[in-house]
Every structure is written in structure tokens, then in C-alpha cells.
Amino acid sequence: MGKYDHIRYLKRTKARTTHQCDRCKDIVMPDEYYCVEAIDDKFLHSLHAKRFCAKCHEKYGESLLFPKKERKKMTEESGPLNNFR
Ligand SMILES: [Zn+2]
């Protein structure tokens, strides 16, 4: 668990330039949607924010941000996509 895990989330964003998905290494083209790691704190900015393509976000949801152990637990309890519906 990282120090800021409780305030980390994925923000859905429209790409302005190309990005590479940190999970599947797919390229996100401009005008496509992707998700970027964000921290819910105005004093904290993630300099190395992870980016994920829409496909990975659909598959894994918020669990993309968390280690394997947490991922399994989150999926069982609530489902990773609930925060986005
Ligand atoms: Zn991906």
C-alpha cells in the first residue's frame, strides 16, 4: 500500500496527444478517451501519473492502481467499475 492510495483514483480524460497505456502498451490516439491516475489533493501532484487505455479501464477499473492482492479483494467486494456508473 502506498501512502496516498486512499486518495488515488482514475480520471477519464480525452487525449490531446498520443499516450501509451501502462498496462497493455497500446497507443491512445488524440481524441480518444483514456484514464490517468490522479490524486485527490490540491497540494499533491503525481509527476509520474500512470495512464491506461479505455480497454484496460473497462477490464480492470480502479484496480489498475492497486497491487494484485488489493485488486482481488476490490473485485469481490464491489466490482471495479462501480465508481464510474
Ligand atoms: Zn491498455
Please describe what this structure looks like.
The protein has helices spanning 54-60, 68-77; strands at 8-14, 19-20, 27-28, 33-39, 51-53. The protein is α+β, with helices and mostly antiparallel strands. The protein has one domain: first zn-finger domain of poly(adp-ribose) polymerase-1 (2-Layer Sandwich). It has a 3-stranded antiparallel beta sheet. Strands 2-3 form a two-stranded antiparallel ribbon. A hairpin with a 6-residue loop joins strand 2 (19-20) and strand 3. The longest helix has 10 residues, at 68-77. The N and C termini lie far apart (26 Å). The structure holds zinc ion. Zinc ion binds at residues 21, 23-24, 26, 52-53, 55-56.
Short structural description:
Helix content is 20%, strand content 25%.
- Summing up helix and strand content along with how strands pair, one would put the structural category as alpha+beta
Strand order, sheet with most strands: 1-4-5
Q: In the residues, how many domains can be counted?
A: 1
Which ligands accompany this protein?
A: zinc ion
State the total count of DSSP E strands.
Answer: 5
Approximately how much beta-strand content do the residues carry?
A: 15-25%
Instruction: Determine and state the CATH class.
Output: Alpha Beta
Order of helices and strands: EEEEEHH
Helix content: 10-25%
Residue ranges: pLDDT <50 for 5 or more in a row? none
Task: Draw up the topology in text.
Layout: E1 8-14, E2 19-20, E3 27-28, E4 33-39, E5 51-53, H1 54-60, H2 68-77
Antiparallel strand pairs: 1-4, 2-3, 4-5
The structure holds zinc ion.
Residues 21, 23-24, 26, 52-53, 55-56 line the site of zinc ion (ZN).
